[in-house]
Design goal:
The complex is a heterodimer. By secondary structure, chain A is an alpha/beta fold. In chain A, 38% of the residues lie in helices and 18% in strands. Chain A has 16 helices and 16 strands. Chain B is α+β, with helices and mostly antiparallel strands. In chain B, a hairpin with a 2-residue loop joins strand 3 and strand 4. The chains are: A alpha/beta, B alpha+beta. Chains A and B meet through helix 1 and strand 1 of A and helix 2, strand 4 and helix 9 of B. Chain B: It is found in: Cell membrane; Membrane. Chain B: Belongs to the ATPase delta chain family.
């Protein structure tokens, strides 16, 4: 490929001709001291809180603290080449990032600079990073389902479009895996996904991008990365920047899913900045407004009213706990902000229950309204049944003889736990979930050995998609278990069971 | 490490001292205004700092030193300045001595100048140019600025060849930059970003095959 120099020259000439020289009027200040990603600046007397400033090395800063004699600036970029006495220029605008279709499929830093080597983001649309969330009049209740493709979640803690559902748990319990599965399941639904990595290992983020690419999810996903080696200021801004990009779609009547992975690291980054800015420390040395830091972020996830196009942002914030301690400061804050939480536990995870969701203490406060009728029907008593099963299971361990009814309840419970296990990167659509949950709750699995339940389910689902495609598509369309559908489903289950012989494992 | 002040980095701006200087200057000017001798007091204060203290660093160090008793400082002030300075200014110096603030006389003096300018409706415009200004351009700059700002303008000139041409005028925290160097810089940036977007838009036209 050769570039034609004439064309290039003419474009350049055009640009030069269009350049009109004006007197550049700017508000300036002088760097008094700089370090740890923050600078104290003398001057800038007319600067606004949150206004962008520019350093001579091109780094962008954010006026963060307006003090009597100086301005505290957080530096979003290289602060090692900034010197005392450097001139700082106020840019007169709030921090904004590129948005629109140009950011989809890209891996970006929190300022919208590319990290994927695919060249600069060419977008005419920019959005301010910090805006006040929409008010009461501009919203409507959550009513549409946001399928994660995970049976345990879609049945027991359903998520609706516009909801904030926290994923909370210790390290290495599969929190990110749940979020990634939810992203994979948005394929062909038109939902734009944003994965915002805060303080993660760059290798882990590279792994996520790899998975998303492998399953074709990068076509509708944007990854915003402020890794562990990024300055605290970048980690602080990343969630807001990602939300700003998602808001473009929401305000244009589209839907977006945002994953914040994870907000405990953002709180830590914010704590670092605040302490360096000499804001007074509070509980666990977090600044007094760390609650507002998260609440104003998560309030921006909403379902807009029909007049505004009915777009939505669904968010899945992730919080990492230490030793299952949910009563620490940041976890309690975020639990109280969100519309429910998915609690993942290490003991479940290591006993093979994956996703390791504890149904007893996981809740969804609004998602039920967004469930389809079919799903509501099959999952109705599921949570309570599982809770009863857990209590019974503990009792049964004592080795007492059980009456047949109790034994049957126990057997059903073991099979349901088995059925709710789901391998990673294999989200199921709504119809598939309804079919396998129906089989489980109606007792069709009671004669299947516990160990082969997962195998049975897999074979059953492939049998359905091979032989009963109509049933699946009808379920997906109608979203309800009408009499006709139930008949077809039961017939299909019986037909499958008649011909099914479990293969030996291994 | 005999003299701690000598070690202090010169470029470090002490915003605390500046604030303190402003406060004392405000008090001094209000008192002088009441007595109706504001010009005299400011003039004497500036002279005291710029000539007497600058030429006698030992005196300045003695004023700043906390090891010298207040009474001693006051008697020195009386002996040295009792005759030559206005009684109001002498009293002010003694008040500062009493509060162990004599080391901040420099900050008070610059604070007083700024406040005095402000009261008189004057602003300081720092003009940087590539070549030294002549009288004609000086008066035209002053007139233009006075018209634009609605205040009397005092010019402070400096020469910086790297500007290549044009002027950089700074009034307070606002900079009016018409320098050739800055315009080249802006044009260069716009050319780069404009070109890259055009390149993406018309990629087929620019490539030969």
């Amino acid at each position: 490929m050769k570039f034609s120099s004439d064309e290039i020259a003419s474009v350049l000439q055009q640009e030069i001709e269009n350049f009109d020289s004006k007197i550049d009027v700017r508000e300036v200040g002088t760097v008094l001291e700089v370090g740890d990603g923050i600078a104290r600046v003398y001057g800038l007397s007319g600067v606004m809180a949150g206004e962008m400033v520019e350093f001579p090395n091109g780094a962008i800063g954010l006026a963060f603290n307006l003090e009597e004699n100086s301005v505290g600036v957080i530096i979003l970029g290289d602060y090692l080449t900034i010197r005392e006495g450097d001139e700082v220029k106020a840019l007169g605008t709030l921090l904004s990032v590129p948005a629109g279709d140009a950011v989809v499929g890209r891996v970006l830093d929190p300022l919208g600079n590319p990290l994927d080597g695919k060249g600069p983001v060419q977008s005419d649309v920019t959005r301010p990073v910090e805006i006040i969330a929409t008010g009461v009049a501009e919203r409507q209740p959550v009513s549409e389902p946001m399928q994660t493709g995970i049976k345990a979640i879609d049945s027991m803690t359903p998520i609706g479009r516009g909801q904030r559902e926290l994923i909370i748990g210790d390290r290495k319990t599969g929190k990110t895996a749940i979020a990634i599965d939810a992203i994979l399941n948005q394929k062909d639904t038109g939902v734009k996904c944003f994965y915002i990595a805060v303080g993660q290992k760059d290798s882990a983020v590279a792994g996520v991008v790899d998975v998303l690419e492998k399953y074709g999810a990068m076509e509708y996903t944007t990854v915003i990365n402020a890794g562990a080696s990024a300055p605290a200021t970048m980690q602080y801004v990343a969630p807001y920047a990602g939300t700003a990009m998602a808001e473009h779609f929401m305000f244009n009547g589209e839907h977006a899913l945002v994953v914040y992975d994870d907000l405990s690291k953002q709180a830590t980054a914010y704590r670092q900045m605040s302490l360096l800015m000499r804001r007074p420390p509070g509980r666990e040395a977090f600044p007094g407004d760390v609650f507002y830091c998260h609440s104003r972020l998560l309030e921006r996830s909403s379902k807009l009213s029909d007049e505004l196009g009915g777009g939505s942002i669904t968010s899945l914030p992730i919080i990492e706990t230490l030793e299952g301690e949910v009563s620490a400061y940041i976890p309690t804050n975020v639990i109280s902000i969100t519309d429910g939480q998915i609690y993942v536990q290490p003991d479940l995870f290591f006993s093979g229950v994956r996703p390791a969701m504890n149904p007893g203490i996981s809740v969804s406060r609004v998602g039920g309204a967004a469930q389809t009728k079919a799903m509501k029907k099959v999952s109705g008593g599921l949570r309570l049944d599982l809770a009863a099963f857990r209590a019974l299971e503990a009792f049964a361990q004592l080795g007492t003889d059980l009456d047949p009814a109790t034994q049957a309840q126990l057997d059903r419970g073991y099979r349901m736990v088995e059925l709710l296990k789901q391998p990673q990167y294999q989200p199921l659509n709504q119809a598939q979930q309804v079919c396998s949950l129906y089989a489980g709750t109606k007792g069709f699995l009671d004669d299947v050995p516990i160990k082969t339940v997962q195998q049975w389910e897999k074979a059953f689902l492939s049998f359905l998609s091979d032989k009963h495609d109509k049933l699946l598509s009808r379920l997906e369309e109608e979203g309800a278990l009408t009499e006709g559908v139930v008949e077809m489903l039961e017939a299909a289950i019986n037909e499958f069971k008649a011909g099914y012989r479990p293969t030996e494992e291994g | 490490m005999d003299n701690p002040d000598a070690v202090k980095h010169e470029t470090v701006m002490d915003t605390g001292a500046e604030q303190l200087g402003k406060t004392y200057a405000q008090a001094l000017l209000s008192a002088a205004e009441k007595a109706g001798k504001i010009d005299l007091v400011v003039d004497q204060l500036v002279q005291l700092v710029d000539t007497v203290l600058a030429e006698n660093p030992q005196l300045a160090a003695a004023f700043a030193s906390p090891r010298i008793e207040v009474e001693e400082k006051c008697s020195v002030i009386d002996k040295l300045f009792g005759e030559s300075l206005d009684p109001l200014l002498v009293t002010f110096l003694k008040v500062m001595a009493g509060r162990e603030r004599l080391g901040f006389l420099g900050a008070v003096s610059s604070g007083a100048i700024a406040r005095y300018d402000e009261m008189a409706g004057r602003v300081l415009a720092k003009v940087t140019s590539a070549v030294a200004l002549d009288d004609a351009s000086r008066s035209s700059i002053t007139q233009t600025l006075e018209k634009a700002l609605g205040k009397t303008v005092r010019l402070e000139e400096s020469v910086d060849e790297s500007l290549l041409g044009g002027l950089v005028i700074r009034v307070g925290d606002t900079v009016f930059d018409s320098s050739v160097a800055n315009q080249l810089d802006v044009a260069g940036k716009r050319l780069r970003s404009g070109f890259s977007s055009k390149l993406v838009e018309h990629f087929d036209q620019m490539t030969a095959n």
